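2.7 Reproducibility. Because tokenized structures are sensitive to small changes in the input, we list the exact sequence used for Biopolymer transporter ExbB, including any N-terminal residues retained from the expression construct. No trimming or masking was applied before prediction.
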Amino acid sequence: MLEIIRSGGWVMWPILLCSVLSLAIIVERFWSLRRRAVIPPNLTAQVWQWVKSNSDKRLDEKHLELLRKNSPMGQILAAGLANMHHDREMMKAGIEEIGNQVVHQLERYLNTLGTIAEIAPLLGLLGTVTGIISMLAAVGEGGLGNPTVLSSGLAEALITTAAGLTVAIPTFVFYRYFRGLVDSLVVAMEQEALKLIDVLHGDREANS
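Resulting structure tokens (single pass, no recycling of outputs):
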């Protein structure tokens, strides 16, 4: 493996850096975007039980802060509960404001992942160009009589191209996967938030 890296020239090092960074982001996003961590099951029902247990139907700041720290879904529900004694539109506005922040949190590092998917093949192409340049320079100095010179330049060109594509392809696949996952989580959180609004305003039963 080390010999292959050396054969690829200096461009292999930024490609390897991209691969390590990509892997770290993928592992971190898999952990952070677990559905149970983003949308804990029965959280909305638990919040409704908290509301019913308070005689004035108002959650104190201690409960709201606990809810905010619970999960991204908790942050959204806490925003709705903070405005629960206002009308429906005010509750929705509060939820949407916090919801935008939550979406930004869920999309953390995804732009970096997409950038890696774009620049990795470009780095591979750069390695191809530098390999061909070094090969032509060696040919200009020593002629075509030394096949080692030709093979080393050609190896540098092909290895970097292959390495760049090897990093870019799975990175792009995971980038698209996480984008779709975030979209599905956002839709689910919106549904839970609307359910809470309907329950608080008496438009639906808490267990429906």
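Residues 2-200 form one domain.
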